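W.,

You were right to be curious about this one. When I first looked at the sequence I had no strong expectations either way, so I just let the prediction run and decided to look at it fresh. Below is the sequence, 259 residues in total, followed by the output.
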Amino acid sequence: MSDAAHDALIRDQFTRQAVPFSTAAPIADAAALKMLVEAAEAGPDDTVLDVACGGGIVVCAFAPHVRHATGIDMTPAMLERARRHAAETGVANVAWREGDVTRLPFPDSAFTIVVTRFAMHHFPEPRAVFAEMRRVCAPGGRIVVADTYASPDPAKAAEFNRLELLRDPSHRRCLALAELQGLFRESGLGEAAASFYELRDSVDNLLARSFPNPGDDQKIVDLFAASLDDQRLGIPVSRDRDGRLCYAYLAAILAAKKP
C-alpha cells in the first residue's frame, strides 16, 4: 500500500472515529492519563508535543501541568474535536497543527516533552516517526511512547494484528513490547522506564466505535470467541456474567530522557 493510500485510510477511519474514539471510556480513562503525565515527569516549565494527537485528550491532560502543549495530527475532523475538547475542558495554553508526523514541521529541540499515544501501530515506519520525535525533543527532555503491544509469540501477534486490521483498516502493525523498547535503545536513549495497564471493555462496545469493512464485524467476533479457547490473540478474553465477550488490550507507557 502506498503512503498516500494509507494516509487516506487514516483520514477516513479517524474522521468517522473522531467522537466515538475520543469519548470511549478506555481512551479517556483519567487514571491512565495520569500515569502518562507522571511518566513524562511534566512540570510548569515544560513544553509538550503530542504526535498524532487525535481528539486532544493527551494534550488537554498535560495542559494544567505544563507551560504549553501542542497537538499535531493529519485528520482535520480529529483536530476539530480536539479544539472542542479544549474548550470544554477550559484549557487555553494549547495549540493544534495539521501535518505529517513523519516530517514534523518544528525545529530541532523545540519541546521538552514529546509524546505519542495509541498511534505507533498506525505508522508504516514507526522508526521514522520516533526519529522525528527525538529530533524535536530538547536535550534533557523526555520522550514518551504509550501504545498497545502484541504477544511475543509470532503466531499470536499475527492473529492479533489480523483482528485489528479487520476492525480498523488503517491499522498497520501492533509491535511487540520488545520492539517498542527497541525504538529507545536504537536511538541512543537507553532503557526506557516502563509502566503497564490494560484497556478493558466489551467487544460490543469496541465494535460500536469501530468502522470495519462491511461483513467483517462477525469475523472480529469470531476471532475473539475462538481466543476464549485457544488464546490465539495473546490477550485476555472472557465472558462477563451476562455472557458478553470482553477483552483486555495490553498497554505500555515507555519513557526516557534525551541525552
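Here's what jumped out at me. The domain at 3-150+170-200+248-257 is CATH 3.40.50.150 (Rossmann fold). And, maybe more interesting for your project: The first strand starts at residue 47 and ends at 51.

Coffee later to discuss?

I.
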